[in-house]
């Protein structure tokens, strides 16, 4: 009978594991609040500053890039799976979205030269799965739904909803409390505007979600702040 193969001892296995994790590059200008939740496979790239605020949540494969401009992720922001945040992240869009952005840009975009070229996500913002945000600013409590694209320099007001797969070309300006279907089609969300209790329930639900994520999702924040 042939001899059974021997397994490497535990010290060798541990050494191999350490080598694999140690080769991951560290972002050189990354500032993360210790209370943030950074899931496994979420990532940061670029050389300009990235700031992640208190209780922000980045789900697996959420990507934040400061290659071209700084990024600020505010308090209680939630980035779902495969979201892309930062100027230049829209370069990987498929051709149908690219053509849609190009066709609308000249008709709808208004540049605000007083704003910087970075990306700021305000308090309680949610960016849902596969959405891409290059915007200059997304206001407090706004939701960017699944697969939406918000172009460079856009300014989105407070408590807006950018509906699923909506495409907003660069420098589009959206007022507060709007439900946005395209750069030229949006309506006022009177329910949120006129009924404070509904707005409070929405914020409360958002906070409860974050607390649940912290119980269920393993936190890899130490990999980025150590």
TrEMBL record:
InterPro entries: DCTN6, Trimer_LpxA-like_sf. Keywords: Cytoplasm, Cytoskeleton. One of its GO terms (molecular function) is dynein complex binding. GO terms for cellular component: dynactin complex. It is found in: Cytoplasm, Cytoskeleton. Residues 1-21, 91-117 are annotated as: Disordered. Residues 99-108 have a biased composition (Polar residues). One of its GO terms (biological process) is mitotic spindle organization. Belongs to the dynactin subunits 5/6 family. Dynactin subunit 6 subfamily. This is Dynactin subunit 6. It comes from Karstenula rhodostoma CBS 690.94.
